Amino acid sequence: MTKIATSLNTLDVGALLALYLFWGGAYLGNKLAIATINPFIMLAIRLGVSGLLLFALLRLLGWALPARREALGSLLIGQFLLVGGMGSVVFAQQWVSSSLAAVVVSTMPLWNALFAHFMGRRTTLLEWAGMALGLVGVYFLAGEPDLSLDPRALLVFAGPVSWAFGSALSPRVKQAPGLMSSAVHMMGAGVSFTLIAWLSGSQWRPPSPSSLLALTYLILLAGVVGYSAYLHLLSRPLRPAIITSFAYVNPVVALILGVGLAGESISRSGLLGIALIVLGVGLAVSGRGRAAAKTAG
């Protein structure tokens, strides 16, 4: 049995900070990148290049090629996570601020609990309470001015739903192991967004320096460095709660960056919605953790 590490070394702390900052900053990076680059073209480049670089890195580290069934399973799940999940959010960010998008995405665990329930997993009372509070929070967020600018902005809510469905379906589908699956996810999504960009008539126009800088950030820092940091943490005997803590820190980082650097703002009702969503997610995750502990016992 692997012994759980009781403390983090310097490299562990650096890897966690990389996940917090680089993945949390991806929301603002998306907003800046699509300012002058078509969202579908940007996603095709970002995910395609990041996936290829991660795939090459894993092969250099000795990872085996996935079997055909594993590759097909990873391709399928990647469509829900990245094409439906990330794609909807990035497309909506043409009208929605990065901070608001990050908060909406943080509802993903609530939708995941709901889909898991319909797929046969027992749902605790705390999870139901969390989902109810989170949905009330979404109701308050829906009144934000950003979401009334264009009906397509409401697609931001489809992102976490698609991501949650893919996450709930993931254990039922045979996939490539570990980060090799993530590389296949991204490469497959890159191909899909290339097709979507072509079918929708998207055109490449000369991007601004800030958009190019943001795209480079998304590919190298949020993509290659972020996933490499994640790979390091997965290789260490750390508690799962530490490794997955980025899922709760990233929205906070995105909110701080959006408000502090990009001059974004959220209304009082929006802040109430954020509080309810955070509380709801906390209850849902706590409820799932207790259920898992009882099962293990």
Give a written overview of the molecule.
With 297 residues, the chain is an all-alpha fold. It has 13 helices and no strands. It is globular. The chain starts with 9 loop residues before the first helix and ends with a helix. The mean pLDDT is 85.
Which key terms come to mind for this protein?
single chain, 297 residues, mainly alpha, 73% helix
Topology summary:
Elements (H helix, E strand, L loop, with lengths): L9 H15 L1 H8 L5 H22 L7 H25 L5 H8 L2 H11 L6 H17 L16 H12 L8 H22 L9 H27 L4 H4 L2 H16 L6 H29 L1
Helix pairs in contact: 1-10, 1-12, 2-5, 2-10, 3-9, 3-10, 4-8, 4-9, 5-12, 6-7, 6-8, 7-13
Shape: globular
Q: State the oligomer.
A: single chain
Query: What is the overall number of helices?
Result: 13
Mean pLDDT: 85
What value does the Rg take, in angstroms? Answer: 19 Å
Distance from first to last alpha carbon: 17 Å
Low-confidence regions:
none
Proportion of residues in extended strands: under 5%
Broad structural category: mainly alpha
Proportion of residues in helical segments: over 70%
Order of helices and strands: HHHHHHHHHHHHH
Largest sheet properties: none
